[in-house]
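Database export, one record per block. Field names are fixed; values are copied verbatim from the stored entry.
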Amino acid sequence: MPSVEVEHYFGNLEAELLRYQNGSYEHLPFEDVDPSELYVYRQDIWVTPDPTEANPPLLEQFCEYVDSPLQTLGEILGDGPDPRDSLPAYEIEAVSDVHYLYSDGRSREEQWTDQPLDREPDARIELLAIDPDAFDSFAQLLASHLGNQIRDRFLDMGLEPPKPFQTPGLGTHDAMIKQQLMPMYDRHFLASEHDNPWDQTAGFL
């Protein structure tokens, strides 16, 4: 996605994360914000056409040209044709305003904004109040985060994720909590806990 489109759809989300990093919490719809507690920024995404109707499934198509979590796009493509050209073309149909989740470890409070469409979103960003400037680009942060959500869906089912998604980092909020509280899961939400967490099996039990 071109940077101008990232800014158009997700610029407000990035700006709010930066405000939090700069110690400004007025945008959060909660009283007495304590930065030592957990705040999650959410944003819903709708795409067109319907990605669930792809045949074969998009995950299978994606894994055909990415078979290692360590490959860069340049290593995948080289000087040959872009294999993504064979994938269906998808566009963002709509995004929501930012939603919020607050948790103090004992309870949680959620604040939802109005949704622009009457159907369930195709994806939901769920970012902690992290520093977006720690990444090469905000687009990179969003792509890795959504990929980690795919990883977490497989882990929730007790399955090993496909290789392209065997990467550490933040995925879904609920998966992060499970990995914190349940010893059956490795802590894959930590980006540097293991050099290669997929050499271990605890996360797949």
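Remark 1: The longest helix spans residues 3-21.
Remark 2: Confidence is low (pLDDT under 50) at residues 192-205.
End of record.
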